[in-house]
Design brief:
Layout lengths: L2 E3 L2 E3 L5 H5 L7 H11 L12 H14 L3 H18 L2 H8 L13 H4 L14
Antiparallel strand pairs: 1-2
C-alpha cells in the first residue's frame, strides 16, 4: 500500500508529519498545521490512516496549498520578473552570484560553480 498525494508517493512507515514533508513546498510546521486542521494525530503513521483521512489530506492540500509544479513555476516567474525589471537581486540571479549579502571573495562555491583559474597578464619587461 502506498499513499499518493499530488503525484508523489509519500512514505507509509513514517509519522504523518514527516511523510508530508516529502512534498515540495511543505515543511514540518505546515504539515503540523494540515494535520491539526483535519484532526489527525501527528504521531500516527501513514499506514494507519483510514481512506477517509487520506482523502481529507488530499482535498485540504489541493484546495489551500500550492505545492510541487505549481509552486516551482511561481518561483521561477518571480525570479524572471526580478531579472526583467533589473533589480539588484535580479542582477545577482543573472550573474549566478549569491543574493543575500554573502561575501564572495573566498566562499560561495555552490552558487558560483567550480573554480576557474584565470592566468595573470604578461608583464612587459623593460
Amino acid at each position: 500500500m502506498s499513499v499518493r498525494i499530488s503525484g508523489i508517493d509519500i512514505p507509509v512507515n513514517k509519522r504523518g508529519v514527516i511523510s508530508l514533508t516529502y512534498l515540495y513546498g511543505i515543511g514540518k510546521s505546515l504539515s503540523q498545521k494540515i494535520l491539526n486542521s483535519i484532526g489527525i494525530d501527528e504521531n500516527k503513521k501513514v499506514k494507519e490512516w483510514s481512506d477517509q483521512e487520506i482523502s481529507n489530506v488530499r482535498k485540504y492540500i489541493s484546495n489551500y496549498i500550492k505545492i510541487e509544479g505549481e509552486l516551482r513555476s511561481e518561483i521561477q516567474l518571480n525570479i524572471k520578473r526580478l531579472i526583467d525589471i533589473g533589480s539588484y537581486i535580479g542582477m545577482r540571479h543573472r550573474k549566478g552570484l549569491p543574493l543575500r549579502g554573502q561575501k564572495t571573495k573566498n566562499n560561495c562555491r555552490t552558487r558560483k560553480g567550480k573554480k576557474r583559474t584565470i592566468a595573470n597578464k604578461r608583464r612587459i619587461v623593460k
